[in-house]
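sry for the spam today, last one i promise. struct tokens for design, 357 residues
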């Protein structure tokens, strides 16, 4: 906790007050908010799960604004808007990615989550010169959250699919290595070229935690990926299959390696690249990443219109790999000073794994 950039009352600005309910904003997080995030379980009637290791990522946000909601000086809710520069095809703009929305369970159902989001957006709109945009990822099944966002002026500009690459016993290729500083220097323009037409492009976390990995041949990078290990805890999954996953799968070591509700460890990915005409490198790279971490699953959220989708569907990726059926996530956006051409363009959305796991 001591390493976190924690809040000091002098570093907060009051932006809303109603009786003993006070909302403040600052660039530092309240320790009570960190504790709240650790205890927060996401989801309602469907899948319910919990993130871990929030402290590390909170301290690595690009330019965060933390909003704290207190009642009688007790923190009861928190929200964060992380500011970054986004490339929307041919133009650059300021983006605010919404994350870490949490309200104490005893205060749920009182509209405090919506209050946090509304006041946070109002504050940014008053402080930020045009153009800029707000955006977030919300699963399509979360009908209530989608409806609230749409009521606040958000629109869906893309649909993301959830892909899992799996290996029972991954093996590391001899061409595999952790990218050096020099490798990152050389891969950056390559990624810029590969993703040149994508919207919402940000490479702020390429190289994060020294976790960009490459395949090299004769000293040249032929494939690369940013891969971050994460751990989620699951409390509930719907339906008969959900019951099986929660109660039977963990009993067998062969299946537990792919899903363990008490400690579900996997890798999340972004910045995928392989040399043109050599799609087989993708499978080799991802298997090597799993072997490096001693894990068996790697996940990415990817725009359904991304040209990489056909390769991920190819049989060479393995029978255990594929897209999660019935799982769709909307990219919801509210833009100011940007043309519909740039926001609603047909080009795919770039998705940073730092933002969804």
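last one done:
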């Amino acid at each position: 906790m001591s390493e976190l950039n924690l809040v000091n009352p002098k570093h907060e600005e009051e932006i809303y007050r109603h009786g003993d309910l006070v909302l403040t904003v600052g660039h530092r997080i309240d320790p009570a908010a960190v504790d709240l995030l650790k205890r927060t379980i996401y989801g309602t009637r469907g899948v319910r799960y919990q993130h871990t290791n929030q402290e590390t990522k909170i301290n690595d946000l690009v330019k965060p604004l933390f909003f704290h909601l207190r009642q009688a000086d007790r923190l009861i809710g928190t929200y964060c808007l992380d500011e970054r520069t986004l490339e929307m095809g041919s133009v650059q703009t300021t983006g605010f990615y919404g994350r870490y929305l949490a309200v104490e369970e005893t205060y749920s159902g009182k509209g405090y989550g919506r209050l946090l989001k509304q006041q946070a957006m109002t504050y940014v709109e008053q402080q930020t010169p045009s153009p800029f945009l707000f955006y977030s990822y919300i699963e399509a099944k979360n009908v209530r959250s989608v409806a609230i966002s749409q009521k606040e002026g958000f629109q869906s500009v893309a649909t993301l699919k959830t892909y899992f690459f799996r290996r029972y016993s991954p093996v590391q290729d001899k061409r595999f290595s952790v990218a050096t500083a020099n490798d990152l220097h050389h891969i950056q323009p390559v990624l810029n070229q590969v993703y040149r037409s994508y919207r919402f492009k940000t490479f702020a976390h390429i190289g994060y935690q020294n976790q960009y990995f490459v395949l090299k041949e004769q000293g040249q990078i032929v494939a690369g990926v940013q891969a971050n290990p994460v751990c989620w805890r699951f409390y509930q999954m719907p339906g008969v299959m959900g019951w099986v996953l929660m109660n039977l799968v963990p009993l067998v070591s062969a299946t537990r390696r792919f899903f363990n509700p008490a400690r579900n460890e996997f890798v999340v990915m972004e910045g995928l690249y392989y040399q043109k005409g050599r799609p087989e490198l993708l499978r080799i790279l991802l298997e090597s990443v799993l072997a490096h971490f001693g894990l068996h699953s790697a996940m990415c959220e990817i725009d359904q219109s991304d040209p990489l989708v056909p390769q991920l569907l190819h049989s060479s990726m393995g029978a255990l790999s594929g897209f999660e059926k019935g799982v769709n996530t909307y990219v919801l956006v509210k833009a100011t000073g940007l043309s519909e051409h740039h926001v609603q363009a047909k080009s795919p959305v770039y998705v940073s794994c730092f933002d969804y796991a």
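DSSP finds ten helices and 14 strands in the chain. ok im logging off now
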